[in-house]
């Protein structure tokens, strides 16, 4: 735990000190654009050299059903923290659904390997503490790109240590199993967005701006969804649930914003040797 705290603290200090030394960018939401572009290039180099090749081999070698099972397993673990954040946001109905998903998938779904909850019509949610702070009224602050972790905002960066501590996988022992699982988790998530990231690399004139704008728009949309969820729940109650095939639709719905869509807690845990 102390290693993670020191790691996150170092990232925050580096971002703050370097950001203050940069000139304001053209986008008012991105005053640290000089620093952010440097970190974007660094993260992209790491991705191209290590993470993307590993994800490509993972996708090409492992059978699809194994990849889906891995995604379902870690998705089920993520549902625990999602449930907590839905409850903190006052979304009691969604929080109850998340709890039921974990209970059903952990038992009838063989420890979460099979997404029985989605097949039963229990909608999957994705909430973190940054979204919770946003629903509580905290403004996002400036856009920042964190080393290794990718796109974020000041608010989400402050929430990141809480998200890391709230991830149940962090408390798995022995540490060697936890670290191995964290690496598999990151590689699995990266494999999901391989095609989309290739499309961005080929089509985007300025990948940095594309990723930044996509991240900010998606985060703002998720915050708005959280704020409107209470009224939306009434309409959703009468609607038919959209079918999900054992989590595959959820896995395909990820919009890549460099490493920002990957589980931050797993990237940090992979470096934790406590």
Describe what this molecule looks like in 3D.
With 274 residues, the chain is an all-alpha fold. The chain has one domain (2-269). It is 66% helix and 3% strand. The protein has 12 helices and 2 strands; from the N terminus they run ααααααββαααααα. Strands 1-2 form a two-stranded antiparallel ribbon. A hairpin with a 3-residue loop joins β1 (143-146) and β2 (150-153). α2 crosses α8, α3 runs antiparallel to α4 (92-107) and α6 (129-135) packs across α7 (154-166). It is globular, with a radius of gyration of 18 Å. Mean pLDDT is 83; it is low at 14-25 and 236-260.
Sum up the structure in keywords.
single chain, mainly alpha, 2 strands, 3% strand
Secondary structure tally: strands: 2
- SSE string, helices as H and strands as E: HHHHHHEEHHHHHH
Give me the secondary-structure category. mainly alpha
Total domain count = 1
Shape: globular
* Unreliable spans: 14-25, 236-260
Main sheet specs: 2 strands, antiparallel
Q: What distance lies between the first and last C-alpha atoms, to the nearest angstrom?
A: 7 Å
The strand line-up of the biggest sheet is: 1-2
| Percent in helix | 55-70%
> Helical region count?
12
Radius of gyration: 18 Å
Task: Tell me what portion of residues adopts beta-strand conformation.
Answer: under 5%
Average residue-wise pLDDT: 83
In a nutshell, what does this entry contain?
With 274 residues, this protein is mostly helical. The protein has twelve helices and two strands.
């Amino acid at each position: 735990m102390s290693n993670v705290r020191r790691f996150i603290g170092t990232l925050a200090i580096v971002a703050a000190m370097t950001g203050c030394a940069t000139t304001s960018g053209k986008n008012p939401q991105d005053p640290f654009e000089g620093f952010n572009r440097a970190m974007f290039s660094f993260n992209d180099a790491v991705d191209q050299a290590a993470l993307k090749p590993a994800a490509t081999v993972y996708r090409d070698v492992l059978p699809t059903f194994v990849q889906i099972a891995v995604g379902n397993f870690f998705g089920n673990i993520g549902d625990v923290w999602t449930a907590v954040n839905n409850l903190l946001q006052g979304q009691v109905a969604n929080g109850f659904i998340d709890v039921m998903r974990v209970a059903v998938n952990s038992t009838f779904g063989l420890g979460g390997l099979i997404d029985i909850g989605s097949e039963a019509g229990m909608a999957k949610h994705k909430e973190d503490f940054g979204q919770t702070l946003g629903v509580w009224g905290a403004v996002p602050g400036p856009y920042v790109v964190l080393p290794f972790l990718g796109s974020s905002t000041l608010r989400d960066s402050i929430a990141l240590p809480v998200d890391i501590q709230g991830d149940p996988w962090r408390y798995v022992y022995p540490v060697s199993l936890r670290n191995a699982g964290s690496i598999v988790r990151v590689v699995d998530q990266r494999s999901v967005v391989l095609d989309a990231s290739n499309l961005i690399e080929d089509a985007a004139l300025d990948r940095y701006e594309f990723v930044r704008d996509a991240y900010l728009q998606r985060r703002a949309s998720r915050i708005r969804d959280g704020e409107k969820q209470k009224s939306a729940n009434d309409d959703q109650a009468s609607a038919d649930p959209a079918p999900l095939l054992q989590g595959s639709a959820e896995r395909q719905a990820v919009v890549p914003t460099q490493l920002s869509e990957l589980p931050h807690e797993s990237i940090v845990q992979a470096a934790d040797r406590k």
